[in-house]
Structures are given as structure tokens and as C-alpha cells.
Amino acid sequence: MIYDGADKAIREMNRRNLKAFTRLKLAKWDELNIIKEVGKTYDDSVKFAKVKYKEIAVEAYTVALYKLKWEPKKATRQADEAITNDWVLDMLEEADPVTLYAFLPEAERKKQRLIEALAATENRNAEIDRALRYWTQQVGQYALNTVDRARLDAFRAAGVKRVLWMTADDELVCEECGPRHGRIYSINNVPPHPHRNCRCWLESAD
Asked: What's the pTM?
């Protein structure tokens, strides 16, 4: 399905982040070391996320072109040219209409907040667990965003002008997304997902 690659990457990032945040609980508790260890935890996670997001984007972009009947070698070449490190960086610096923050500035805020919390609390493990929970949500949301943005860029590269909003069209679809099922939008005027973890997707309507 559309988000299978993202889900696989999310599981991989979650396992890695769980280990890293668990290691924080064993860190030496002095201020300088906490600043160092928390910084390393977030910085390493961001670095790994950039790698995974690029992989997700290349896959999503390529698959979108396959479905538009592009020849595989041409689709692969186009994806490699379009999905660069700068493409990923631009996405992570752009404010998201669902989360209302941009990934990289928010990562820095979360890092600083955890440093401050660990310096002020006696229940450090609870603060680390809370930080991991919020970080997991952020990393997962942007994995989905990566798929959506890559597919739209692939459609534009293929000359698609209109896209179709798709849902699972079952009893699990929420009240916000349900009415959008089957609606056609200009590719330059697609509404944002109405909530976090939305699994609606777009198909070419041309």
C-alpha cells in the first residue's frame, strides 16, 4: 500500500530511538554530561531520520511514476534526480499545516526542553519516557508527510494537473476525511491532511 515503506521505516526508527532514549536513563547525572548525551541522542536520531526519509521519498516517487506507466529506468532516474539531500532538508525546514511546526526547529526545541526538564526534575525516567513519546509522534508524522510530498512531486514531474483524494472508504474513516473521498483537486490546491496520522492519499485524476 501507499504507506508501507513509511511504516517499515517508522518501525526501524522507533526501535533505534527506543534504545537511544533508554540509554539516556543510564547516563551520568551531571549537567554537562546530560547536555552532551541528550544532544547526541536527538542529533543522531535526526541524522538517521534524514536518511530514512530520503529512502521513503525515492520509493514513493518512483512507485507513483510506475503507476503512471513510466518506463522503470526512466522513473528511477527521475526519482534520483528529484529526491536529493536538499529536497529532504527543505521538507524538514518547512512548517507543516497539521503539526504546526517544522521538523528541524521542533527537534531543537524538544532537545532543549528535555535538557531543562532533566535538570529540574527528580523523576528523570518519566521525563525521558515522555520525550520519547513526543519524538516518536514527530518522526512518524513526517514519514507520512514524506510520502505525500514525494508523490505530489512525481505527479507534477509527469504533468498531472488534477488529483483524486482517496480514503480506505470503510467504517474506520473519520468524519473529517470521509466527505473528501473521490473529490478532485487541482494539484496546486490540494488541502492539507485534516489531522495527524492521516492515511488518506492522492491519485492522478488525469
From this structure: 0.95
